[in-house]
Amino acid sequence: MRTAVVVGTGLIGTSAALALTARGITVHLEDADPDAARTAASLGAGITDEIEQPVDLAIVAVPPALVGRVLADCQRRGLARCYTDVASVKSGPRAEVAELGCDTTSYIGGHPMAGREQSGPLAARADLFEGRPWVLTPTADTSTETLNAALELVALCGAMPVVMDAVAHDRAVALVSHAPQLVSSLVAARLENADETAVRLAGQGVRDVTRIAASDPRMWVDILSANAAVVADVLEELAVDLNTAVGSLRSLAADGAQDRQKGTAGIEAVMRRGNQGQARIPGKHGAPPTRYETVVVAIGDQPGELGRLFKEAARAGVNVEDVAIDHSAGRRIGLVQLSVEPTAVHQLVTVLTERGWDVRD
User: Fold this and answer.
1) What confidence tens digit (pLDDT) does each residue in 297-324 have?
2) Domain encompassing residue 214
3) % helix / strand / coil in the chain, to the nearest 5?
4) Which of 134, 146, 8, 35 is nearest to 27 (CA)?
5) Which BP terms from GO are recorded (predicted)?
């Protein structure tokens, strides 16, 4: 691949353009909003010059409901030899592409499983897709050339290709992406009119659960509209479990020992199911999940402290697998939670303590 065009310079499109440009690809940028394309170009994502001859690959980076029409227009103009999209839903766009009579031999659906709470070109990052799955949904008549072009795109962006059927993809993302987004928003909505004292007690748990609730509602309406029935099915199943959990909690609050025993069993059952489901989420580099142990260190809220802590861990020969920070509401300190291999805990604690760090039990 030497040339490409990105049609739609939002977060995903601009991030792909930045990744390709960094690898020496000449990337043309188009957007219905010329200011967005110019913004992406100013970030180094590519150029807004008119395309004089077909490029190697066109990346349609628009909402699912627009994929068919935009692809048809791109093919009518002869923009590229091969085409793909990055929409988060695949079945609807595929059907529309067929209805509009697009050339499906030169088109393959795609969906990089990456994103951020922010949207637009200014939120884009060249490394957004590194190590992330990138789903490809070829049709029966997708040409080998088109598949190879899409695979090269995935490789250039540092992602991992996953070939799936479009319908299976939509069911999968409903479960692991779309329904969790709504659940996060529903939990965060409980905080909207909550007492200020309650909100000030918020810790890392509620921050983790509500992080993606900061996402752009308009963008998510577009996504959910294209996969509404499947997401509704997932939430309906969740509602059954939620009602069961409510019933168990009511039993726990009852006076009778038998009711409390029933409630305890119900809550424990759902928690254990949660344990089992969470344990199935792939771990580092897609490997089976690993149980790490956490070392908690208090650090001052000042420049360079976190960097110094990581350097100390490196000197101790310990690899930090994950990190989280719980900020104190009343003091200028943070509790840094370093996730490390169980065998490394003693070494890390010993070194940090010797060097004067405030390691917490």
Assistant:
1) 888 878 888 888 999 899 889 999 888 8
2) 171-279
3) 50, 15, 30
4) 8
5) tyrosine biosynthetic process
Q: What CA–CA distance (Å, rounded) separates 17 from 41?
A: 9
Q: Are residues 19 and 119 in the same domain?
A: yes
Round to whole Å and give the CA distance between 181 and 247.
25
Residue 209 forms part of a structural domain: yes
**CA-to-CA distance for 17 and 47, rounded, in angstroms?**
10
Number of domains in the chain: 3
pLDDT tens-place string over residues 3-47: 999 999 999 999 999 999 999 999 999 999 999 999 999 999 999
DSSP letter assigned to residue 82: E
The answer to the question of residue 110 being in a domain is yes
* Distance separating alpha carbons of residues 203 and 200, to the nearest angstrom: 8
Whole-angstrom distance, CA of residue 3 vs CA of residue 20:
9
Structure-block tokens of residue 273: 């199911």
Do 263 and 134 lie in one domain? The reply is no
- Please work out, in degrees rounded to the nearest 5, the angle formed at the alpha carbon of residue 238 by the alpha carbons of 232 and 241: 150
With residue 163 as reference, give the H or E element that holds it. strand 160-163
Query: Does residue 284 lie in a domain region?
Result: no
- Asked if residue 148 and residue 65 are part of one domain, the reply reads yes
The C-alpha atoms of residue 173 and residue 112 are separated, in whole angstroms, by: 11
C-alpha to C-alpha distance for 57 and 41, rounded to whole angstroms: 18
List the CATH number of the domain containing 119: 3.40.50.720
